[in-house]
Amino acid sequence: MPIVEVGGVKVRFISWAEGIALSETLARRIQDSGFKPDVIVAISRGGLVPARILSDVLEVDDVITVGVKYWGLAQRRAERPVLYHGVEPGVIRGRKTLVVDEVADTGHTLMLTRSLLDLIGAAEVKTAVVHLKTTSKYTPDYYAEKIEEWVWISYPWSRYEDLREFEKRGHDISKYIDKIC
Predict the structure, then answer these.
(1) Burial call 119-154: b when 16+ CB within 10 Å, e when fewer
(2) Is residue 130 a part of any domain in this protein?
(3) Contacts of residue 180, Cβ cutoff 8 Å, sequence gap at least 6
(4) Is the preceding omega at residue 169 within 30 degrees of 0, hence cis?
(5) pLDDT single digits (tens) 125-152
(6) 60 or 162, which is more confident
(7) Residue among 161, 156, 157 at smallest CA distance from 74
(8) Does residue 166 sit within a domain?
(9) Residues 50-76: what's their mean pLDDT?
């Protein structure tokens, strides 16, 4: 679906098929690099679906989550990301770890998570996202697609959140969501 403008915000709506295909592309890039993680850390909530797909393709059964909040709809909720659900150090210590999120917009969420995992003793930490925006101050080790011009990316697994957030601002995006989901 082409990029549309909603209330002054450029939005790219991702279909389920596209989200799966992009996650599979990401998995192939990780495989091609030779990196074989022992554990996948999904950044909740956006990274949950891509992490699940990566775990299947990469054959990694150990998937855990960390909770980090940073963004509201196309704006910051806080000056920096906030970790609200951590990980048990014993699960990570000494293991090769892959951190997965859906998008690197500023890169701060990935930097916080990577620092936490390094601090608790991961053997090696690599990061992966479906979309890397050029606005990110952090470049993940792996990404499926690079976004040159900033847009809000609406993933099918966050459609209800996006519907609510746009509605709060007086905009109905249901006609776009209905086309892709």
Answers:
(1) ebebeebbbbbbbbbeebebebbbbbbebeeebbbb
(2) yes
(3) 1, 13, 14, 15, 16, 156
(4) no
(5) 999 999 999 999 999 999 999 999 999 9
(6) 60
(7) 161
(8) no
(9) 83
